[in-house]
Amino acid sequence: MKKAEATRRTILEKAFDLIYMQGYQATSIDEIIATTKVTKGAFFYHFKNKEEMGLAVIKEIMYEGMYKNMTQSIADSKNPLKDIYNLFKELLLLNPYMQVKYGCPANNFMQEMAPLNDAFNIAFINMVTEWHNMIEQCIKRGKALGQIRKDVNPKQVAYFVMSGYGGIRILGKVYNSTDCYVTYLKELKSYLNSLQ
Amino acid sequence: MKKAEATRRTILEKAFDLIYMQGYQATSIDEIIATTKVTKGAFFYHFKNKEEMGLAVIKEIMYEGMYKNMTQSIADSKNPLKDIYNLFKELLLLNPYMQVKYGCPANNFMQEMAPLNDAFNIAFINMVTEWHNMIEQCIKRGKALGQIRKDVNPKQVAYFVMSGYGGIRILGKVYNSTDCYVTYLKELKSYLNSLQ
DNA sequence: CATAAAAAATACTAAGTAGTATTATTTACA
DNA sequence: TGTAAATAATACTACTTAGTATTTTTTATG
User: Which CATH number is A50-193 given?
Assistant: First the structure.
């Protein structure tokens, strides 16, 4: 990686961390540069303004992470219900980056900025739609494989399980304990089994 | 209501609105006073600082709203599954205050501030626990009434449906359309019926 | 009505904010 | 190696922020 590219990457990664823990609006450029070896000159060389940087965080860090952690494992699943359950378990209990206290980075960012910034929101829609499609396809495959009842509506189920994930992330932040994740996962398993 | 009390109330209500639409950290005292007829002197007469005001918003506006809109209708329900479904439908599609674009005020506030302010978080825990207990009791009643299967775990179900609500509020913000609410509600109905 | 306390108005401060202008350094490559 | 372009450093600006200090007005009550 070229040095300039590394500087840019440093900015995006630090910004991602701070946004994850504090929120986008509460994260200042001064703080990003104070906690890296990047100067203000370098920051504004790489990004026209704070918004452009925020957009790059979504598209280059968040989207990549979402794709890697939230879609790959169910992309060609032969056991849709099982693999969807495992995906959520992995995300909630095993993912090394996410912390109960701070929830899910994408969730946080979307909740904060979706109504406030159209450019951000377009990127959010892309992320969410991508995830939704992956889950929907997975459910459809489960039907084709005869593992899921014929009358199950894949689109509905996809929205339903996505919602559960988003919501339990909020409860986790409030209780600051994985206990509620565990409880949620038990019921998720029951629900998914009820689709058989 | 005494005049001073009205001033205090004006501050809290305007603050609630702005926090709902912009977030707590992004809402400045200057903006609150600029959009009311309240001066800075009056503001700091009623509240020691911004945090104390935020706490009052949670305890006096949000908690009240939560209690009124989210627990009363299921408090002594004789048809738990039906009434829980109706509660969510009412909250998502009929509640006059909440807007798809801005989601649920309590959700937003919790997601933003739970990890950042302990005093706020204690108040959030009270709110969430109250709601959780109400739903759990409702499910238990459903079991006692023979409307819900014996093997259903009320605590798990309560977390599960609460999660769904929190999450679909986020999706609603991103898509800025009630369509996903409608889709979600259909699957919620299926899920609740599966508990019979 | 007098007056003390409650409530509110005004003007200010110090720190933080995004962003700019200018200068300096590093890099690529002719 | 020389030099132009790319990258980065420094110092600054105009504005916003939470909060304070001080004064003024309003209210309650003897």
Answer: 1.10.357.10
Question: Of B188, B196, B191, B109, nearest to B151 (Cα)?
Answer: B196
Give the per-residue pLDDT at A190: 98
pLDDT digits (tens, 9 = 90+) for B149-162: 999 999 999 999 99
The confidence score (pLDDT) of residue B1 equals 59
Integer distance in angstroms from CA B47 to C1' D22?
A: 18
Asked if the Cβ of residue A50 lies within 7 A of any atom of strand C, the reply is yes
Provide the number of CB pairs (under 8 Å) joining chain A to chain B.
159
Residues B133 and B186: their CA atoms lie apart, in Å, by 24
The span from the first CA to the last CA of chain B, in angstroms, equals 49
What is the CB neighbour count within 10 angstroms for residue B96?
5
Angle, helix A105-113 to helix A154-175, in steps of 10 degrees = 100
Tokens of A125: 């829609």
Q: Which CATH class is domain B55-193?
A: mainly alpha
The domain locations on chain B are 55-193
B160–A110 C-beta distance less than 8 A: no
